[in-house]
Design a protein that fits this description.
heterodimer; A: 243 residues; alpha/beta; Glutaconate Coenzyme A-transferase; six-stranded mixed beta sheet; 12 strands; B: 282 residues; eight-stranded mixed beta sheet; three-stranded antiparallel beta sheet; 33% helix
């Protein structure tokens, strides 16, 4: 037992999304995915490219190593050498994601961000998702506006979606993937302290649950030191993830 | 060669209700806010606004000037959801063409290149196709036979952009890290109005920064407006950062109250009202 917090397991689970990715751009959206990407870059995925959140590519210490304004960033997406981790206001069992609006699109009950780059991301590069508060409001039977394309729709547009890939969904309760025959969402690991029942209770559709569900791996002592002392000494992660 | 300098009032006087207006910048970054404020002082309305949306969209929508919006999002960056855009959208105040960020970019490229559309691998499989029934697809004429979205050209009657420096002829220079899509907006529009922090002699432009910073070329520029602090409250790196406290005030204030306090006078009055507010808050 490492004494890691829930937020720290989430950082590890996000970092693992980029394991073995090689020399590609990691595009984390949100604090915990950013900590995960930077942790991966400093440890097991040293070839990753990272931005400063704007137009510069920077090394772990902030050294500028490249220029990536929006127009080049959008072009890089279509080249596929990128793995983005986006947020999701709603996500369904096949990984269809919504960040545009809640309710009827023509007259939404709640307008959110808009589709942003979710349609281009999901047809061109690996796209994972981060959900800081796992609930039935987010994990829904059907999303109100499909922004990020899920596996069922990708299958229906086979040629256009030949680069489609959703490696994982990380929430504050566990890690999920689509490694099932019909590409529906599966519980891949539980963060220590979470039960299968808790996850099922907080999910608005039937998840595939294997007989043996592993726990999200423990952080190493060095990873914990990096998270706590170098990457997030102010402990902002505790504000994004409860517990 | 002609001197294209004009005031913001002279620039907006050339617009008409019903036009399609492109607005440069991105989110709450280097938005041509002085030109937007000048537009708000006119009676011009019924606009189709094309923008990587920020407070430009929020203000014009709140003021009821937008008939149709073409966008992939509207955000204030440090405040993820643009509250005045949200409110307007939730009351059904305007028509929306919601497209992906990359589709939007290729729409600008198509317009700038006088093409009716450009193929893009984005949109298929998503509800962008459902909510934009006019979008068409195109099939590759080569052996692969892949189907793409044929993103239509986003041609505009006028464009507003804000840059760091410009000369009197319309050569525009950005000094921050990202050009955004400002050159494309100018090329995709029939007329383009470039506001800047400071007008300088042409020879000064390349003394301050390398020639790659000369983003906008004068042949696509109609008017040049000197507007110091003209992107306020959005960022204009490296001249100034976003005015976060003021943006928070904008986001947290009902539109009529905000407009009454800050937007009833001219640009000078706006900047003075912001200064007075800052002193009150200190």
């Amino acid at each position: 037992m490492s004494g890691a917090t829930r937020a720290e397991y989430c950082v590890i689970a996000c970092a693992e999304a980029w394991r073995g990715a090689g020399e590609i751009l990691a595009s984390p959206m949100g604090l915990v995915p950013s900590l995960g990407a930077r942790l991966a870059r400093r440890t097991f995925a040293p070839d990753l490219l990272l931005t400063d959140g704007e137009a510069l590519l920077v090394g772990p210490d902030g050294t500028v190593e490249g220029w990536l304004p929006y127009r080049q960033h959008l072009a890089l997406v279509t080249g596929g050498r990128r793995h983005v981790m986006m947020g999701a206001s709603q996500i369904d069992r096949y990984g269809n994601q919504n960040i545009s609006c809640v309710g009827d699109w023509a007259r939404p009950r709640r307008q959110l961000l808009g589709v942003r780059g979710a349609p281009v991301n999901t047809l061109n590069n690996a796209t994972s998702y981060w959900v800081p508060r796992h609930s039935r409001r987010v994990f829904v039977e059907k999303v109100d506006m499909v922004c990020g394309v899920g596996y069922d729709r990708a299958a229906a547009h086979h040629a256009a979606a030949r680069f489609h890939r959703l490696p994982r969904v990380v929430s504050d309760l566990g890690v999920f993937d689509f490694a099932t025959p019909d590409r529906s969402m599966r519980l891949a690991s539980l963060h220590p302290g979470v039960t299968v029942e808790q996850v099922e209770e907080a999910t608005g559709f039937a998840l595939a649950v294997p007989e043996e569900v592993p726990y999200t791996r423990e952080p190493s002592a060095e990873e914990l030191r990096l998270i706590r002392e170098v990457l997030d000494p102010e402990n902002a992660r505790a504000r994004e993830v409860r517990g | 060669m002609s001197d294209k300098t004009m005031t913001a009032e002279e620039a907006v006087a050339r617009l008409e209700s019903g036009m399609t207006l492109g607005i440069g910048g991105w989110g709450s970054r280097r938005k041509p806010m002085a030109l937007v404020r000048a537009l708000l002082r006119t009676e011009i309305t019924d606009l189709t606004v094309v923008s990587y949306g920020g407070p430009d969209v929020g203000m014009l929508a709140a003021a009821g000037r937008v008939r149709k919006l073409v966008a992939a999002f509207a955000t204030l960056d440090s405040i993820p959801l643009e509250p005045h855009f949200r409110a307007a959208r939730e009351r059904g105040a305007f028509e929306l063409m919601e497209v992906d960020e990359a589709m939007f970019m290729w729409g600008l490229h198509a317009a700038a290149n006088r093409l009716p559309f450009l193929p893009v691998r984005a949109g298929i499989g998503s509800d962008v196709m459902r909510v934009n029934p006019s979008l068409r697809t195109v099939t590759s004429p080569y052996d692969d036979g892949e189907t793409f979205v044929a993103m239509p050209a986003l041609r505009m009657d006028a464009a507003f952009v804000h840059v760091n420096r410009a000369d009197r002829l319309g050569n525009g220079q950005y000094l921050g890290p990202d050009p955004y899509f400002d050159d494309l907006f100018c090329e995709a529009a029939d007329t383009a109005y470039v506001s800047c922090e400071r007008i300088v002699d042409t020879a000064e432009l390349t003394k301050e920064a390398p020639p790659q910073s000369l983003l906008i070329k004068r042949h696509v520029v109609t008017g040049v407006v000197e507007a110091p602090n003209g992107a306020h409250f959005t960022s204009c790196a490296p001249d100034y950062a976003r005015d976060e406290p003021f943006q928070k005030r904008y986001a947290g204030t009902a539109w009529p109250e905000f407009a009454e306090r800050f937007l009833t006078g001219d640009e000078h009055a706006y900047q003075e009202a912001v200064r007075a507010w800052r002193e009150e808050e200190a």
